[in-house]
Design goal:
YhaN_AAA; transmembrane; five-stranded parallel β-sheet; six-stranded antiparallel β-sheet; single chain; P-loop_NTPase
C-alpha cells in the first residue's frame, strides 16, 4: 500500500505478506483509516466520506495499492485531483481497460467487501442493539447474504406496508382514505337523489353523445367508401392496363423457366468460345513453324557424334587453357624461385644445391640456440666491459677517499693537543662558575652603587645644606641669644666639622666602588674570549673527526662494492668461456657458420630458412610442371578427336589453333543446342497450352450446354429464338411493375385486392353519386344532434351552479387519485417483500445448507465443542444444540456465545466465496469485547485461516501479538 495522502497518513508505504499481517497501534493511530484507504482506492467513497479523509497537510486525497494475481502485478491508483477522482488500473506497468479490471475483481464491490470479507467490533455492537427475539432472525439473514441489511430491509418494508394499509386496521393512511371515500359516496348518492332532474338530463346528454359518436362513425365509414370509389375511378386506366398486361404475360408463360441472366451468360460464353478458338489456331501454327526450325538445326549440328557433352567439352577447353597458363606460370615461378635461391646463396656466400639446402636441419631449436648464443655473447661481452668500467670507477673513488682521509688527518689536532685543550676547557669552565659567583657579587655591587648614588645625591645636597643649615642655626641662635654666647660658637664649630667629615667619607666610599667595578669588568672580558676560542677549536676537531669517520665508512663500502664487482667479473668471464665452447660445437655441426660473426648468426638462420623454403618450393614447382604437361598432353588428344568431326581432311599439331577452333565450335554447338532445347521447350509449352486451353474451354462448353438445358433448347438458333420471347416477357413484366407501382401509390396495401376484382365502371359511377347525397343528409343530422347536446349541457350547468354536486364529484376524484397513489406504494412494498421471500427461499435451499455446515464446524471449534450442531427453522431463525443434546434459541445464549456464532457465520461466508475470488480478509478491532479465552480461540482460528488467505488484522491490544504470527506493523501516526 502506498498512502500518498489519506487522512493522517502521508507519503507512507506498507509492504504486506501473503499470510497474516497484524497492524498494532493505540486508538486514533490510523488503523481504521488504512481500512477505508483500501475501500477508497478500489471502490471510491461518498463526498462526505472523502472530505473526512482529505489530508490536512496538502489538501490531497489518494494513493495506490499493488497486488499480485497469477504472477502478474496489478496497480490500483486513485487520486482526487487526477482523472476526476476515477480509479486507474495498471497491469505490468500498462493502463488496463475496465473490462479486464472487472474480470479480475469478479463482481467484487464495496458492499460485498464490507459484508463478506471485512468486519469490525461495530458489527457486533449493531447486533446487540436488536431485540432478543430478533437476533436469531438477524443471524439467519446474515447466513443467507452475509449482511444484516436484508433483515433491516424486510423490517422497513413490513413497517412501510403496515403504515400504508392493514386489512382490519383504521389508523393506516390507506384505510383512512377508503373510509373517507365511502362517506363521500354516501354524500354524492344523497345529492343525486335531490337532483334527479340533473341525472335525467345527464342520461339524455349521454344518449345524445352516443348518437353523435355513432353518426360520426357512420359518416367516417361513408367518407371512406366514397374516397375508395373515387380512387377506383381515378385509377381506371391503370387497372384496365394492368389486367391486359397480365393476359399477355400469361400467354408467354412458357418462357417462365428461362434463365434470368440467360442473355448475359450466352454472350459471355460465346465470347469465350471465340477467344479459345483464336488462341488454338495461333498455337497450332506456331508449333508447326518451330518443328521445321528444329529439323534444320539438328541437320547442322554434329553434337550427337561427340564422345563428351557440352559441359565436359567446356571443362576440357578450360582445363587446356588452365594447363597452358599453369605451365607458363610454373615456368616463370620456377625462374623466379631459382633467382631467389641463387640470390640467397650469393648473400650468404654459399654454393648449395636445392636438395642440399632442403636437407639442412634448421628447426626452431636451432634458431633459438643461435639467437641465444648471439644474445648471450653480446650480453656477456657488454657485461664484462661494464664490470671493468665499474671496477676502475670504484678504484678511482677509493683513491679519492684515501686522499681526503690523509688531508683531513693532517689538518686535525694530535691527541696530545686535543687533551691539553680539553684540560684548558675544564679550567675555563671552572672559572666560568666562579664568574657566576662574581656576577652575583656584581649584582650586589650595582645595588650598593644605586644606594650610594642616592646617598651621593643626598650628600651633594648636604654639602650645601649642612653648612647653610649650621650657618642659619648659628645666626638664629645669635639673634635670640646673642653672638657673644660661647654655646653658639661651639655649636657652629661642631656642625662644620661634622659636615667636612661626612663629605670626605662619602667621596672615599664612592671612589672605592668605582675602582671595584672597573677592575671586575676587565677580568671578565678577558676570560670569556679565551673560553670561546677553546670551544671553537674543540668543536672543529669533533667535526673533523666525524668527517673522518664518514670517510672511513665510505672507504669500507667502496672496497666491499669493488670486491663484489670483481666476483661478478670473474663469474662472467667463466660464462663467456663456456659460451665459446658452445660456439665451437655449433660450427662443428654447421661449418659454414665460421665465416660469419656471432651477431649475424640469427640473420643467417632466417636467410637459410628462407633459402630452404625457396628450395622446397623450387622442387615442388618442378613436380607440378611435369604433372601439368602430362595433363595437357592427354587433353590435347581429346581435342584432336573432336576437331576431326568438323575438319576430317585437315589436321593440326598446334594446341592454340586446336583450342581456338574448338572454342568456336563449342560456342556454335552451345548456341544450337540452346536453340534446340528452347524450341523443344517451346513446342512442349505450346502443346501444354493447347491442353490448358482445351481444359479451360471445357467448363465453358459445359456451362453453355447447361444453359441450353435450362432454356429447354438443343442448339444455338433455338436459344436465340427463345431469348427473344424471354426479353418480350421481361418487357411486359417491367410495364406491369410500373403500372402496379402507380396503383400502389393510391391504394397501398389494398392494391392486390383491388387488382384481383373485375369492375362495372358505369355502376361504380352511379353508386358514388348516391353515396355523396347520403353524406350530405348525415352531416345535417349530426349538426342537429350537436345543437340539442349543447342545450342539454346548458341546463345541467344551471343545475350545478349551486356547487354541491360538482364539489363532491371533484373531491371524490381527488380522493380516488390519492388512494391510487397510496395503493401503488403499498403494492410496490408487497412486491419487494415477495421478491425477497423468493430469493431467500432459493438461497435457503441451495446455498445456506453448505454455509451452515461450515458455520457449525467453526462454532464447534470456537466454543471448545460445547455446541455441536446448528439448524434453521421455518420462521427464519437459528437453533443451536448443546453437547448435552438440548436445543436453544439465540435469545437463550449468552452475549459472548452469540458473538461467536456471528463470527462463525462470517468465517463460513468467507470460505464460500474465497474459492471464487482471492480477496484479503480484513478485521478491525473485531474482538475487543471478548474475554481472554474466547479471544485466544478466535485468534488461533484466524491464524489457521491465514495459511491459504491473506489476513489484515487491526488491533489496539499489544497482548494479541503473543497469539499471532506473520508480519507485524506497528502504527505510530500522531
Amino acid at each position: 500500500m502506498d498512502l500518498v495522502s489519506f487522512g493522517k497518513w502521508n507519503q507512507k508505504k506498507l509492504h504486506l505478506t501473503n499470510g497474516l499481517n497484524t497492524f498494532y497501534g493505540p486508538n486514533e493511530s490510523g488503523k481504521s483509516t488504512l481500512r477505508m484507504f483500501l475501500t477508497y482506492v478500489f471502490f471510491g467513497l461518498k463526498a462526505d466520506e472523502r472530505e473526512r479523509y482529505r489530508s490536512k497537510l496538502d489538501g490531497q486525497l489518494g494513493g495506490r495499492v499493488v497486488l499480485e494475481e497469477d504472477g502478474e502485478e496489478w496497480t490500483f491508483e486513485r487520486f482526487s485531483h487526477k482523472q476526476n477522482g476515477h480509479r486507474v488500473v495498471y497491469k505490468q506497468g500498462e493502463v488496463s481497460n475496465e473490462d479486464r479490471v472487472k474480470q479480475l475483481l469478479k463482481g467484487l464491490d464495496r458492499f460485498l467487501l464490507e459484508s463478506i470479507f471485512s468486519f469490525q467490533d461495530r458489527d457486533l455492537q449493531t447486533i446487540r442493539q436488536y431485540q432478543t427475539d430478533d437476533i436469531g432472525k438477524l443471524l439467519f439473514n446474515i447466513g443467507l447474504t452475509g449482511s444484516e441489511r436484508i433483515s433491516e430491509l424486510e423490517s422497513k418494508l413490513d413497517n412501510h406496508s403496515d403504515d400504508l394499509f392493514k386489512k382490519q386496521g383504521k389508523k393506516p393512511e390507506l384505510n383512512q382514505k377508503l373510509t373517507e371515500l365511502k362517506q363521500l359516496d354516501t354524500r354524492i348518492s344523497e345529492a343525486n337523489e335531490r337532483e334527479h332532474e340533473h341525472h335525467t338530463l345527464y342520461q339524455e346528454v349521454t344518449g345524445l353523445e352516443k348518437q353523435i359518436e355513432q353518426l360520426k362513425v357512420d359518416e367516417q365509414q361513408l367518407l371512406q367508401d366514397i374516397r375508395h370509389h373515387e380512387k377506383l375511378l381515378q385509377s381506371k386506366s391503370s387497372i384496365v392496363n394492368y389486367q391486359l398486361l397480365q393476359n399477355k404475360i400469361q400467354k408467354l408463360k412458357f418462357v417462365y423457366n428461362f434463365p434470368r441472366d440467360g442473355r448475359k451468360r450466352f454472350e459471355e460464353l460465346m465470347e469465350k468460345r471465340q477467344s479459345f478458338d483464336k488462341e488454338h489456331n495461333v498455337l497450332t501454327s506456331t508449333i508447326q513453324n518451330l518443328e521445321n526450325q528444329l529439323t534444320d538445326l539438328k541437320t547442322k549440328s554434329q553434337y550427337e557424334n561427340w564422345s563428351i557433352n557440352l559441359t565436359e567439352c567446356k571443362e576440357l577447353l578450360n582445363r587446356v587453357q588452365r594447363a597452358q597458363s599453369n605451365v607458363e606460370k610454373l615456368k616463370k615461378e620456377q625462374q623466379q624461385l631459382t633467382f631467389e635461391f641463387n640470390k640467397i646463396q650469393d648473400d650468404l656466400g654459399l654454393t648449395f644445391e636445392a636438395e642440399e639446402m632442403k636437407e639442412l636441419s634448421l628447426g626452431h631449436y636451432t634458431k633459438e640456440t643461435w639467437r641465444r648464443i648471439a644474445n648471450q655473447w653480446e650480453d656477456l661481452q657488454s657485461k664484462v666491459s661494464s664490470l671493468n668500467k665499474q671496477y676502475r670507477a670504484k678504484q678511482e673513488e677509493l683513491n679519492q677517499e684515501e686522499q681526503q682521509k690523509e688531508e683531513l688527518q693532517q689538518q686535525m689536532l694530535s691527541e696530545t693537543e686535543e687533551e691539553k685543550l680539553q684540560e684548558r676547557l675544564d679550567d675555563l669552565r671552572l672559572s666560568e662558575q666562579k664568574e657566576l659567583l662574581k656576577e652575583q657579587f656584581r649584582d650586589q655591587l650595582r645595588h650598593q652603587q644605586n644606594s650610594l648614588s642616592h646617598v651621593k645625591q643626598f650628600f651633594n645636597m648636604a654639602k650645601v645644606g649642612i653648612p647653610v643649615t649650621l650657618i642659619l642655626a648659628f645666626i638664629i641662635n645669635g639673634v635670640f641669644n646673642g653672638f657673644t654666647s660661647g654655646v653658639s660658637y661651639g655649636l657652629g664649630a661642631f656642625g662644620l666639622i661634622v659636615s667636612i667629615i661626612s663629605i670626605m667619607l662619602i667621596q672615599k666610599q664612592q671612589q672605592k666602588l668605582n675602582n671595584m667595578s672597573h677592575g671586575q669588568e676587565e677580568a671578565n672580558s678577558y676570560d670569556e674570549q679565551q673560553l670561546m676560542t677553546v670551544k671553537q677549536k674543540l668543536n672543529k676537531q669533533k667535526q673533523d673527526q666525524n668527517k673522518l669517520d664518514e670517510i672511513v665508512k665510505r672507504i669500507y663500502v667502496i672496497e666491499s662494492n669493488r670486491s663484489d664487482i670483481k666476483t661478478d667479473l670473474d663469474h662472467t668471464k667463466e660464462q663467456l668461456s663456456e659460451l665459446e665452447k658452445q660456439i665451437d660445437q655449433e660450427i662443428e655441426k654447421f661449418p659454414f657458420l665460421s665465416q660469419y660473426e656471432l651477431y649475424f648468426w640469427p640473420n643467417v638462420h632466417e636467410q637459410l630458412l628462407q633459402g630452404k623454403s625457396v628450395s622446397e618450393q623450387l622442387i615442388q614447382k618442378e613436380i607440378e610442371l611435369d604433372s601439368q604437361k602430362e595433363i595437357l598432353h592427354h587433353d590435347e588428344q581429346q581435342l584432336k578427336e573432336l576437331y576431326t568431326l568438323y575438319e576430317p581432311n585437315t589436321s593440326s599439331d598446334q594446341l592454340d589453333i586446336l583450342s581456338n577452333v574448338m572454342q568456336d565450335r563449342l560456342e556454335q554447338e552451345e548456341k544450337w543446342q540452346r536453340e534446340i532445347e528452347q524450341k523443344q521447350q517451346w513446342i512442349e509449352d505450346y502443346h501444354q497450352e493447347l491442353k490448358q486451353i482445351k481444359a479451360a474451354q471445357e467448363p465453358y462448353e459445359q456451362s453453355l450446354n447447361q444453359l441450353y438445358r435450362q432454356a429447354s433448347v438443343d442448339n444455338e438458333n433455338e436459344f436465340r429464338r427463345q431469348l427473344q420471347h424471354y426479353e418480350e416477357y421481361l418487357n411486359l413484366n417491367e410495364q406491369l411493375d410500373q403500372t402496379y407501382q402507380l396503383i400502389y401509390e393510391i391504394f397501398q396495401e389494398k392494391t392486390d385486392q383491388i387488382l384481383k376484382k373485375s369492375y362495372d365502371w358505369d355502376e361504380l359511377e352511379a353508386w358514388l353519386s348516391d353515396k355523396q347525397n347520403q353524406q350530405s343528409t348525415t352531416e345535417q343530422t349530426l349538426e342537429n344532434h350537436r345543437q340539442k347536446l349543447s342545450e342539454k349541457r346548458a341546463q345541467i350547468k344551471n343545475l350545478e351552479e349551486d356547487g354541491i354536486l360538482s364539489d363532491l364529484v371533484h373531491e371524490r376524484s381527488q380522493l380516488e387519485e390519492e388512494i391510487y397513489e397510496l395503493a401503488k406504494k403499498w403494492a410496490v412494498s408487497k412486491t419487494a417483500q415477495g421478491f425477497i421471500r423468493d430469493t431467500k427461499y432459493r438461497y435457503q435451499n441451495v446455498y445456506l445448507p453448505d454455509i451452515m455446515e461450515q458455520t457449525k464446524k467453526y462454532f464447534d471449534k470456537l466454543t471448545d465443542g460445547h455446541y455441536q450442531n446448528l439448524s434453521f427453522t421455518q420462521d427464519e431463525t437459528i437453533l443451536v444444540q448443546h453437547v448435552n443434546g438440548d436445543w436453544f434459541n439465540l435469545n437463550q445464549l449468552s452475549e459472548g456465545t452469540a458473538d461467536q456464532l456471528y463470527i462463525s457465520l462470517r468465517f463460513a461466508l468467507n470460505d464460500s466465496l474465497k474459492r471464487l475470488i482471492n480477496v484479503p480478509f480484513i478485521l478491525d478491532d473485531a474482538f475487543v469485547h471478548f474475554d481472554e479465552n474466547r479471544k485466544e480461540q478466535v485468534l488461533d482460528q484466524l491464524r489457521r485461516l491465514s495459511h491459504d488467505q491473506q489476513m489484515l488484522y487491526f488491533t489496539c491490544y499489544e497482548k494479541d501479538l503473543e497469539h499471532l504470527e506473520g508480519e507485524m506493523l506497528q502504527l505510530n501516526v500522531s
